[in-house]
Amino acid sequence: MDKPEISGNTIKIPPSHKFLADVDNFLESILREYKTEDSVIADIAISVSELVNNAVTHGRKAGNGNPVTVEINHQNNKIKVSVTDNGSGFNPDELDDPLADENLLKEVGRGLFIVRSLMDTVDIQTTNQGTTISITKTIQ
Q1: Superfamily (CATH) of domain 5-138
Q2: Are the C-beta atoms of 92 and 123 separated by less than 8 Å?
């Protein structure tokens, strides 16, 4: 895979940061179809960008080139976005607290904290096949 592939409500991207804009454009297009408010689009876009960035940086198994998959669904005034990679996963309880004094000046380590602050729910599923983080946000 050398470019994004879109099928319905799913986009798969090669594990590279250069495709983050493709994911953002894909999500914004779908969210506009759902008549989503700009502020909610921004919250979802920031959150998904953080998750895809983490999936590309940390989540893929070294050297295999497997894609990162983003799927968006709308049901009962809720937007659900799932980001899946084939990495070995992580324990979110073992992440450093970004608000602890020793972490305040670190340049990394705030992504999941930001996502949790912007979304209604964050669900992390880790299996032998990879990790899926699903986020939901209520829309009007």
Answers
A1: Histidine kinase-like ATPase, C-terminal domain (3.30.565.10)
A2: no
CB-based contact 133:122 (threshold 8 Å): yes
Is the pLDDT at 129 greater than 90, yes or no?
A: no
The residue with tokens 């669900």 is: 123
- Return the pLDDT at 130: 81
Three-state secondary structure string covering 46-64: HHHHHHHHHHHHHHCCCCC
Other Cβ atoms closer than 10 A to 35: 8
Residue 133 one-letter amino acid: I
E-state strands within the chain: 5-7, 10-13, 68-75, 78-85, 121-127, 130-138
Domain assignments of the chain as residue spans, ordered by start: 5-138
pTM of the model: 0.85
